């Protein structure tokens, strides 16, 4: 095998209570990439469609992540990468993570899988460092592992796969405004009250338990964020209205996808997720904000050959 | 049925990362109580052995919890309670919770179980309010539900049962010093860094996932507390030595039981738990501190008729 074409899923990081630790992969939102093994050393981005992003290896997240892998590999050739972006950069559903994870997953596959998924996460995190200044894993972990992931710890990196109840669907609406991840981190407070902390880890425990038990009510009760959402939501136009309309339409919960501006909702069943899509887009239509909106099952396998 | 004799388990609250939200019930450490239905209204403590504690209904946690139940009941008689304390008051393994939970569980049983376990937790919390000034549930929840419990939220009260891997054993050592729960709360900082918060909810998620998956390594990696233990452990003589000796002897983790001074360790298998017992008591023998030490399986049913 010299060349593969892969699907690289969009991802929702944080999932309300799980700030910086939880993420989930989407199935019907994602990029396509073609990775080719070549004799020439290094990583070359030969094609990039769908978004205006740099093709220079050192300025492209897929390039940087790929180089991180090559630095640890004894393979003495290189790779050419074609990236077809369908996830908009800056949307908050893991656009950079899809590219950096896709690059290292595809390269690893073509090399006969010498690296573990955990190692691939570390390589892909270098792409995230380029994109946002922080080598975070909350999008690359679900992109590479699939389903729900918990980053228990960064030092050492410890990623836990959490089961995905089969009837869980995501609705994601992306208002066409730009928030840089780095700006969105700057506005966060660097401390919190012990009282809010206790609520947050109670909810993280509840969310993880709910996912294990297919307990949609418990998942719903746990999708609460007392710490980050109240601050970050101020950057997102119409957030409160979108959230209340999603909940009224039957969503289990609703919150900011990653650092925004996309807003996600989780629902039990596709029909509910479609109702939520309708109610969310109605809000933005009334306010007059341009948007994209997607309904997606949970992607339980992560990146895959297509 | 007019009278029952019951076992009321000791409990470990917090379990390292799960401050104020997690707890677990013990099987071989606990009180005995005899609850009797009588015609005379109210709750009367007719016997109290093993500890010097007030028998006046309004000054006794079992009495106060029992009155909270009676206030919500249409039963027009009363109860007499005999309490045989085996758990030392102030030990940090839920002595007051065993009595208050036992009272309401036994009374509910004799009335034909009109109240749910969640309601019983609320009544028993009134006993905790008397004992420590705070109506907390982290000992009464595991005493009443058995096994591991997660308090996802207090408002509204939401308790989640978490599975208990069958090979999990607890070792608990109680240095004979007194720390009041109220004092132990006062020294806590009322805020924490966002960075520490993220670590803590990562670990809570990991602990819950590890318990669901019988993943002893993950449980072990998650038994970390960056927030409370570093402060509270200063009140407990020899804590660091006890902890390091427990870990060296093979414990999955070790921390403060509730607000202390007892120290707990969790181990995989009884043999390991016994090794940990030996290493812990050796430390206190060298320092010259009086102690009690117990090894116990996890109690998965909570309070039970004996």
Give an account of the 3D structure:
- Two copies of one chain form a homodimer.
- The first copy, chain A, has 306 residues and is an alpha+beta fold.
- Chain A folds into two domains: 3-162 and 301-305, Ribosomal Protein S5, domain 2, CATH 3.30.230.10; 168-297, 2-Layer Sandwich (Alpha-Beta Plaits).
- Helices cover 37% and strands 27% of the residues of chain A.
- Chain A has ten helices and twelve strands.
- The first copy, chain A, has helices at 61-71, 95-110, 117-132, 140-145, 181-186, 194-213, 216-222, 229-232, 239-248, 270-287, and strands at 3-13, 22-38, 42-49, 78-84, 148-153, 158-162, 168-175, 191-193, 253-256, 263-268, 291-297, 304-305.
- In chain A, helix 9 (239-248) packs antiparallel against helix 10 (270-287).
- The relative contact order of chain A is 0.18.
- The mean pLDDT of chain A is 96.
- Chain A binds chain B through residues 17-22, 150-153, 158, 160, 162, 188-195, 197-209, 212, 218, 221-222, 227, and chain B through 17-22, 150-153, 158, 160, 162, 188-195, 197-209, 212, 218, 221-222, 227.
- Chains A, B: This is Homoserine kinase.
